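Lab notes, practical 5.
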Amino acid sequence: MMPATPLQRSNPAFDVSQKPAKTETHADLEQPTKLRARPPAWIKFPELEDANAAVDAFLEPLDALDSSDLKARTKRRLREEISFISNSDFVSSQFGKQVFADPLNLAPRQAELGIAAIRRSGIEMPIHLGRLCEAPLLKPEQERMLFQRMNYLLQQAAVHRSFLNPNRPSRVRLELIDRLLALAAWHRDRIVEANLRLVFSIVKKFVNPNNNFDDLLSDGIVALIRAVEKFDFDRGFRFSTYATQVIRRNSYRTVVLNQQERQKTVGGLQDMDLDLTDEGRESAISEKRWHELRSRLSVMLEELDRREKFIIRARFSLGAHRKVHTLQALANRLGVSKERVRQLERRAMDKLRGMVGDVNLAEMEAQ
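Output from the prediction step:
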């Protein structure tokens, strides 16, 4: 773990190991005694015009739902907590009008910023990744406003959620909650895209032959999103200070976990009598023994299910796979999460190790 700097030790606000400001849920809200199920006036302010246009594309209208469907949807929404970082300003009934009255003045995306980020990375990567870094950096006031708006929208969604009643479902309130959550996500994404260059600059330092840039970047972006959701904008320091610590620790953790996973994999292959202690020297396995081993391994692979077989072949460059595929590439191919691919790979390796006891590899020793 990286040591804290003197500034971090002297200022507890910089210690990301401590819990962030309290994350509120519906149970903690100071609720009004009555809140009408209708959109507030500020939701149609010009400042939200772009955000509303963006979320309209995927918000699902509920007009076609009957009573039973609305009840089921209400119950499902009540099972889902809405978390946000609370602030004393949110209790004001006029805060919505205030926070959405002032313009954000976000600068347009600039293609040259993405190209520059690719060049500075010093790593070979597809040029399209530069598009992730085209959003200009945020000014301090813009950053603060985005965090205020995001958390206030989440707070308002949580307040309306607390008034849901599955016995008397409200289509209008459900649609309003969906819109508030979507608008909050829109503001979150503006913060994320403005800080993606920070992820590039951090994760590239962890790249090595065993940890590729794509996997580290994917994990780093997830860490950035979590940092946005947990950051308390009222602590008085820039988000990049907090995010740097979160992303760096996450990258370090990823490298350590990958190292542990490789050690397990190598240990499993050594159990199968493969000498992998010196990867740089010429293989000590005779050609005949190698063909026999591959033949028996093919038989063993047939005992795996379809996904396990595909993952093992792709991860170890067997069969038609001419290169080792990353966990993220396989996750995209299979339509599952990267962690799920990791679990399937581990399960498949455990099965193969269990089959080793049934295979007499001693007879395959080089003569």
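Observations recorded by the TA: Strands lie at 23-24, 84-85. Residues 19-256 form one domain.
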